[in-house]
Amino acid sequence: MEQATGLSEHDYRGRFVDEILQGPVYAEVEQRIRQVLQTGKPEFTETFVRLPGEPKAHPWALDIFPLTDEVGQVQGAGLSAYDYSQQYESRERLALVSEARTRIGASLDVVGTARELTEVAVPRFADLVSVDLLDPVFQGDVPAPVLSGPVPLRRAAYRLASATSREHPAPDEISNHVASSPIARCLAGGRAERHHVNDSQVVRWFADDPVQAAQARACGVRSLIAVPIRARGTTLGAVMFVRCSPREPFGPDDLAVTEDLVARAAVCLDNARRFTRERGISLALQRNLLPHGPTTHPAVETASRYLPAGGGAEAGGDWYDVIPLPGARVGLVVGDVVGHGINASATMGRLRTAVRTLADIDLPPDELLTHLDDIVTHTEDDAVATGEIPGAIGASCLYAVYDPLSGICSLARAGHPPPVLVHPDGTATVLDLPAGPPLGLGSLPFEAAEVTVPEGSLLALFTDGLLSAGDRDLDEGLDALRHTLARPASSLATLCDTVLGTLSPEARTDDIALLLVRTRLFGEDRVASWDVPVDPAVVAETRRRACDRLAAWGLEDTAFVMELVISELVTNAIRYASGPIRLRLIKDEALICEVSDSSSTSPHLRRARVFDEGGRGLFMVAELTRRWGTRYTRTGKTIWAELAPLHLSTR
Question: Residue 341's pLDDT is what?
C-alpha cells in the first residue's frame, strides 16, 4: 500500500479507507468492509481504481475477508488488492476479437463491412480507425498488386471517438498515400506496422505529407498501427488504428489484436467484393435480357417493372417479355426461376430465349409450354450428369397470346400465378386458368384457356414475389392486387408504381416482375377478308378485290407487290391444299396478307433451276416481303406475309 499510494504506514493507522483516499470508489470499498464485518462472509470484487499520481484508473481485484478468533467470532476484516491490468487487457482483447467474429460481415456490402470494423474497434480499442481500399474493390474487381511508392486509396469507413475532430479525407474520397506513410509501407511490405508519434518513420511521413501531419496534431495522435487488408492472396487496402493522448500507446500485444481483427474483416470484405462482382454481372445480364422500356405494339400498350429481392441486393431469375407475332398478334410472357445470382440470371436467359424461339414458330400457349418443359427436362438431365446443380427445375411461366382482331386472349401457365383482368368498368377478376405443373417435372400436360378481352381492358401479369411481399399469403395478395389495379391512374407506368408501392415493402425476400397490358381492338376498317373458291379462275378476281381495298386504304403503291404475293399464295392453296380457302388483309404497321386452308402441309422455299417451270413463287414472296411464315390452327394452316414499312410510304 505504501508503494502504491506513496503514503506511509503511519498515515494509515487508526483511519478508515475513505478517510485515507478520497473518492466514490474508496467509499464503496469502505462500505464492503463493513458489510463483511456484519455478515462474516468474504467478498470478491473487481473495480477500476486511480491511485494518487496515476494518470488514469487501473483494474484491481479486491478480496475482503473476515478475521475471526478461535471460536469463530468476527473480530475484524482484512483486504488484499491486486493490480491485474495486464490480465484484464488480455481478456478485453480476446473479447474484442470474439465480438468481431459476430459483428463484422453481417452484410455483403463492402462499405458496410468496413463500417462494421470501425464500430467494433472505436472507442473500445482505438480512438480513430480508418479503412481505405483500392478503388477496384468497390466495383467487385480484383485489384492489381501494390508496388512501392504513392498509393491511391478510396476511403470506405472512418470513425472517431471524439466528435470534435474532422474527417480527412471524406468518405468515398480518393487520397494518395505517400511512400513514407505507414499505409504505403504496410501495403508494399505486406506486414503490419506499429509506431509512436515520435518515431523517425512517422516524423518523416509528416514531413512528406503536411495535410496528414495537421490532421494528426489536431487529433492528438500518440501511437498508430497500420495493417494491410489481405485475403486469398490479394491486397484489398489497409486499416489505420490510432490512439490519442492521454490513452496508453499501443503495445506489442495490441499489434496481434489488430492483425486478428483485420484478418477477420479481410475475408468478409473479399466476400463482399466477390458478391458485388457477381451481382454486377447478374444485373448486367438481366438488364440486357429484359425489355428496355415499354414495348410499342399496335395491339397493346404496356408498362413493366422489375425489382430484385432485398431492394436491389441481388439479382434473381424473374423475367417478362412482349413478343410481336404474325397477324398483328402479341405474345405476353412472365416467368420465375428459383434462386438468385448469376446462375438464376443465366437460367432466366436460357428460358427467355427458348420462349422467344418457340413463339417465333407460332405455337399455341399450351404447346409452347410443353416444348419448354421438354427443353428444361433435357437440359437439367445433362446438368445432373455432369455434376452441376440444376437451375431451372421448379421454374414457373405464364404465356399468353392476344389477338386484336378477335379480342381473344389464349393463356396457359406452368406453376405460375394466374393473371388479373380489369374490365373497362373497373371490375377486376382473377382469370380461372388450368394450373399446370412447374417446368422440369416432365410428362404432365398443360392446358390453355381462351378469354374474350373487351377493348381497353387491363391485363396484369406478375410473379409470386408481388403477392407474398409483406408476409401475406397468396389469396390475400391477390385480393390486394385486384383492389389496387381497380384504382384510376393517369398512365400504366403510374399504375405500376402504385401497385409496387402498395403491395411491395422495402425489405423483399423475393424478386418481383410486373407487366401491365392495355388491350386494343382493330376495327373493321383495318381488316378485309374473302372466301376464295377452289378454282384457278377466281385468282384474278381475288387480286382485283384486294387492289380495290388497298386503294380504299390509300395504299395504291403497294398494289403491284401485293398482287404478286396474293397470286402466289392463293394459287398454291388452290393447287396443293383443300378448301375452304380464305384470304385476309390486315392494315397494321406493316401490310399483312394471310391465306388459310384446311391442309396441314407446309410449303417450302426452294431455289429453282434455270429451265424449271415452277418453284419461283415463294422465292419471290420471300424477296418482296419483310418476312413470311406458316402457323398451324385446329382446322389447318395459315400462310402469311408482311410487306416492309418501306412499301407503305407514299410518294
Answer: 65
Q: Hey, what's the cell of 188?
A: 508494399
* Distance in angstroms (rounded) separating the CA atoms of residues 238 and 398: 51
Query: Contact at 8 Å (CB) between 17 and 1?
Result: no
CB-based contacts of 556-560 (< 8 A; 24+ apart in sequence): 557/647, 557/648, 557/649, 557/650, 557/651, 558/591, 558/643, 558/647, 558/648
Q: What is the three-state SS of 279-293?
A: HHHHHHHHHHHCCCC
474-485 helix and 492-503 helix, angle to the nearest 10 degrees: 150
**Torsion angles phi and psi, residue 208, rounded to 5:** -80, -20
Per-residue model confidence as pLDDT tens digits over 43-64: 988 887 777 766 667 788 889 9
Amino acid at 403: D
**Integer CA distances (angstroms), 220 to 197, 212, 223, in order:** 9, 12, 9
CA atoms within 13 A of residue 301's CA, in its CB half-sphere: 12
CA 201 to CA 223: how far, in whole Å?
12
pLDDT digits (tens, 9 = 90+) for 348-398: 888 888 999 999 888 899 999 999 998 888 876 555 444 444 455 678 999
Residue entry with cell 474484442: 96
Tell me the three cell numbers of residue 373. 418443359
- Per-residue pLDDT of 391-427, as tens digits, reads 556 789 999 999 999 999 999 999 999 999 999 999 9
Q: With contact defined as beta carbons under 8 Å apart, do 319 and 536 qualify?
A: no
Query: Can you spell out the DSSP letters for 236-302?
Result: EEEEEEEEETTSPPP-HHHHHHHHHHHHHHHHHHHHHHHHHHHHHHHHHHHHHHS-SSPPEETTEEE
- CA-based nearest residue to 7, from 72, 64, 52: 52
230-252 average pLDDT score: 90
Residue 434 grid coordinates: 388450368
Report the side by side order of strands in the sheet with 151-160. 174-177, 151-160, 128-133, 234-244, 221-231, 193-196
Rg (the chain; Cα; Å): 40
Measured in degrees and rounded to the nearest 5, phi and psi for residue 343 equal -60, -45
Q: Is 339 helix (H, G, I), strand (E, B) or coil?
A: coil
Q: How far apart are CA 113 and CA 268, in angstroms?
A: 7
Tell me the three cell numbers of residue 85.
491490468
Which has the closest alpha carbon to 440: 486, 388, 379, 497? 379
What CA–CA distance (Å, rounded) separates 338 from 15? 78
**CA distance readout (Å), 322 to 120, 277, 296, 355:** 50, 30, 9, 11
3-state secondary structure of 116: helix
332 vs 628, more confident: 332
